[in-house]
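Weekly modeling sync, notes
Attendees: S.R. (lead), two postdocs, one rotation student

Agenda item 3: backlog of single-chain predictions. S.R. asked that every request posted to the team notebook include the full sequence so nobody has to chase files. The rotation student volunteered to paste the first one in as an example of the format we agreed on. Action items at the bottom.

Example entry:
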Amino acid sequence: MVSKKFKSELPPLVFGGRTAHVNHSIETLTKQLNASVASIEQCIASPKEEASSATAAVLFNGLQLTALSCSPLKIVGKGQADCLLMIPFSGHGMTKVGNQTLRWKAGTTAVWLPKTDFVDEGSVRSSLLINIDPNRIERVTRIMLGLSPEESLSRELLLPREIPLKVGRVAFEAVLRQFSSMVDQFLLQPELLMFCGIDDNFYRNAAMMLHPDLFLDAEEENIGTEHARRRLDRICQYVQANLGQPITLTDLESVGFMSRRNLHYAFKDRYDCTPMQWVRHERLILSHSLLVMAGVGTTVTDVALACGFNKSTSFSAYYLKQFGESPSTTLARALAR
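Predicted structure, as returned to the notebook:
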């Protein structure tokens, strides 16, 4: 028979130390975690060590945060309820998703689990579990990048993966620790969390962590002003030659050999808009020319499709905003000549 070791001292919680639930029951821990992270359905203690844990949870403005400090254990999750961002502040371990093994380590790597079954095992740890609303994180990302609903955004949110905690000069662990400390200051009066905007800060940093290619360069490339101008010229020439075809940000990155971040900077600097906003503007200019020169038999739908607009309703709305009249009005005037 294996005798269990007495519990060792647990690392501190990232927030909630004053109000934490401390216990030595694995069943109680499971219930506490499941109350805030619905996808966690079972915790299994190491057979060689006495189970011990401390947890704290807070919910405000739709953001659920859970702080966990525990002895080595296995966590089994059924991902029908939550998208989880698991941030280790102490310890190391791995999370298995199907045949995929994701490794996490304090200061180095976190784990993203988007509504998926998983089995997590690790050493003594202190972690922050963030329930992420996929609709909100996509909306925040679009706002931060200036993207419209029609513009493509990477679908990497659907894939479980390791998330680096340091990109370039940005250490996300330190940033999230600071935000968690702010949460801790308000825990005795949690209603104040509703007004301090910390939830938005968590989501904005989560957006950068999940899409580092859109916001951050691990090694910023100094390509030079003239070289950058030529790259942007090449991208613009490609767009104008393919206005009737689907065009994505990935296409523009490939044509210009530019990171997504540098691509956005280049268009903002030259045209004061995002790349896809400029693509739409060029499509509208082409559509106006085609409508002005239209002959008998031409329809607004024909012109919209020829200029890369898949929906005539959205095309008409953009056209009206750009030229002050509907495309059908422009067409009617051309046909009346």
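Discussion: group reviewed the output briefly. Residues 1-7, 218-223 have pLDDT under 50 and may be disordered.
Action items: rotation student to repeat for the remaining queue; S.R. to check formatting next week.
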